[in-house]
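Q: What structure does this chain adopt?
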Amino acid sequence: MRKKMVAALTSIFIAASLAACGGNSGTGSPTANTDQVQESEAATEQTEPADEQTSNQQDESQTATETGKLSLDTTIEETVLFEDDNTRIIAESLDFKYNSPYLHLKFENNGDKALSFVSGSIGYSGNSVNGYMVDGFYVNVDVEPGKTALEETYVNGDLLNILGIEKIKEIGIGFDIKDSDYNDYAQTGPLYIATSDADGADDGETYLKSIQNKKITNLYGYTMDHLDENDFLQNDQLKGISSCLITNKDGVQSLFLEVENVSDKVLNIRVSNSIVNGIQLVSGSWTSETINPGKKRLVSISLDDVVSHAGGTREEFGITEYSTVKMDLDCLDNNMNNIFEQEATFTLGDSKESFMAGQTEVYNDNDLKVSYAKTLKDEYGGIHLLFLLENNASKDNTFDVDYDSLSINGTMTDFISYSKTLSPEVKSILNIEVSKYKLEDVKITSPEEISDIEFKLEIRDSDYNEIDNPTIQVTTK
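A:
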């Protein structure tokens, strides 16, 4: 669901070719599979920066401050990052290519088992530059006993520009080390490398200044539609510095949250249960980000991807403006223990929109309501049967389509659908997806050919007691 992590931030400002989230992509996805998809894509996230970026460079005689770009003359001295009886990790040098910093690492294995070293993956991502966590410096290398491996890794320079970093003063990188039997060997935690600019004067640049800088705006072709510098977390361990709504040059809109870890331990912020314009489009976790002590992180949430996760587009859902976004922002420690749970609401506009006019009520009982909204065709030839769920009861309730119960035009067919748990006074979308190949089995090629839909809906309370198991019938012609 989510796309490449390095691009996850820069895509909002740059071209769609760097876009980051998709489908579930909730970082999104069917909620149950979000992390699995992110892991599979993390393995390929380190692609070479596009050569065409070099054609956009301004005259090299201009300074970094004048161009709003990263200084390219920073170096490091060889630094032993981690060492024990069996292994050493050494940062050998730093250079620049494609306007991005490349870190050269050496891994030594003097033990009797092969070791794997991973950094920057979804499962273990604690890398930083100066005061900001970054998606980058990805490493995945296996080293046999008695052998040495050399690796080159980088972070996207565009991301550093957006963060307001003109001189790299400090690089933080951490490693998850496992042996050949997949047993944990070590997790190093953040390891820091001081650069040749470490003692330089503070240039005072920050992400908030950078994204409002006309040079940066013009360079990446985005617009800022909303900015709020109120603390949306109000907590003594994580601080919510700012929230902003950005539209990139391709019209993709994303919510950026700037969060600072003001505690003395590594923390994770998890985004879940996203409600957009009053409709819950994601139930369950959407993304989780690690923040080292004293560091900040940008959490990017593509609202268009959140909508896509529910089965449609902004236009198909009748959304002309993202007016309110509500979500759970939970804090966890490195062992995934809950530190605190926080609901946050971001008011981005003032429109009063309703989801897909012309709904047809198909169930109304027990303070619960189900309405058929629309059938949409996706880019792969499949269809999405969309229903609006409303929980007007006083407790949480879960809606789930019974397995093997869906028929279209009187013929049974397979489908994909995920259960929806709604809190009191919450509305959500039930998305029943039928693939192109299953549609061919029932001789349907387009939504217009569907005349009737039938399935069993299982409704349970928070204690998993069955409330009702109605048969839902829809006649579309």
